[in-house]
Design goal:
Blueprint lengths: L2 E6 L2 E6 L4 H7 L23 E4 L6 E2 L10 E3 L3 H16 L15 H8 L23 E3 L9 H9 L5 E4 L6 E4 L15 H5 L5 E3 L3 H9 L4 E6 L20 H11 L3 E2 L2 H20 L8 E2 L4 H10 L13 H17 L6 E7 L3 H5 L16 E4 H10 L21 H4 L6 H15 L17 E8 L2 E9 L1 H17 L7 E5 L17 H17 L9 H11 L5 H7 L12
Parallel strand pairs: 1-5, 10-11, 10-13, 12-17, 13-14, 16-17
Antiparallel strand pairs: 1-2, 3-4, 3-5, 6-9, 7-8, 15-16
Helix pairs in contact: 8-10, 8-14
Length: 583
Amino acid sequence: MSTVDIKINGRPISVPAGTSILKAAKLAGSKIPTLCYHSDLEPWAACGICVVKIEGNPRMARACSTLVTEGQNYITNDPEIHTIRKTVIELTLADHPQECLTCARNLSCELQRLASEYGIREIPFDRNVKRLPKDESTPSIVLDPSKCIQCGRCAQVCQQLQDVWALEFIGRGEGTRLMPVSGLLLNDSPCIKCGQCSAHCPVGAIYEKDETAQLMDAIMDKSKHVAVQMAPAVRVAIGEAFNMAPGEIVTGKIYAALRRLGVDAVFDTNFSADLTIMEEGSEFVERVVNGKGALPQLTSCCPAWTDYMEKYYPDMIPNFSTAKSPMMMQGAITKTYYAENKGIAPKDIYSVAIMPCTAKKFERIRDENMQSSGVDDVDLVLTTRELARLIKTAGVDFANLEPEECDSPIGAYTGAGTIFGVTGGVMEAAVRSAYYLITKEELADVNIEAVRGMDGVKTGVVDIKGTKVKVAVAHGMANVKAVLDEIRVAKEAGAEPPYHFVEVMACRGGCIAGGGQPYGTEDEVRDQRIAGLYKDDEQSTIRCSHQNPDITKIYADYLEAPLSKKSHHLLHTHYTPRKVYQK
């Protein structure tokens, strides 16, 4: 790798060729403030806060989008630069509502932090706040354009990373504003509710629909039995809200915190991830071994991906696994199997899911299949961020909680269940059990390295005792198109499918970076959360879903067998072509 010798504030440093001034300064230990920049996105240089001086050049450069050149000395801070940056922040604040105390991003707002760091106590410019109506049309996220600072992150994420194109800027000059495409409501746009726009927004212009009060109301209602499940990725992220390191496994602390809040039963979605593998894995065996169903089989755990597929690739519906997501399976089992064991009517159970994903708020009401118990299988979905806020308001000292165990009989899980939260995890868990379902032998090495890592598309061949299974894993919706188009071309040509099994997750890195996870998610944080889930898997006594004794028991006592009539009723769904634009 070629390097470039430069100076940062007069101090020599060598950096890789092609490095931006912003990244070079970070390597040199100098922080340059940013607002529009995010490491997930191509630099857009919209805000102007990251300006720096280049010695000998009268013009300032924007550090995020300017590459270093040999021999240059870059000045990242002096009184003039400080004044310019402070003025940019003041101008931004002049157009921004001063509603910090009631804003969803209070104390986690990047603009608020910069204003504090630069000691801004008054705005020396005329106020010019545009009061625009909120868009609360989706069940997942809220768009408040009055708070938009036109950094462009949300539109870039939606268009570049997710290839959805639900958000855009319209107008020019003073009239420029962010809105859903074609002037539609967000729910009528191509939006797939993934929440990546909210995860990348630096302020409170886009945020998850807060439903924490509903959980508190349910806990107060003594006629309700409140049962809560927690998704795999939550356990390696929520600790960040309490000054713990990303990736730290806090499973037992979350169980304890939920009980401190007053819920009646604490379960783990990892259990139903194991259940999903039994259903989805058996379905795969039927397709690849017995020729019953279209190949490749596509995973169906991610509701944002499901929504995308129904809108953009409805011809792939026959390829989709009919297995519900772990969240919806857990909800159905809670209100049937668990309800019968406890002697509680399904209508008296209030089923809550703690998820890393805003699209899960949409999934619980997406169609009638989400009421297989006769009532809503899941009554409420809260994001990781929402649960963190509740724990704080309850005065729970989360970091110092003694870990507790989840409740039985639908809480115990295997390592395969926990890796559902990372890209490639569903595929790896499925292969571990598919090997057994096909051969009746256990896989010697359950670590499937071919599907691990952060490449946008990962492909490989898994040898199941002579059966060559071609697999693909894609994460980040923009990476999915190439895989789907490859499948579509083969199908139209009547050729063999390029893959037998394809896993898709809408968000980069998988659920560990879902739209409802703690703010500040970048690849460094993703890597730490991913490592946490793999560590949890490696520490598990049982690492294959089909070996979970509670899974064996629920089939013996209640579901009969994977793909049985009863399991189809409770654990499977169907899909419907949807219009990209609803109006």
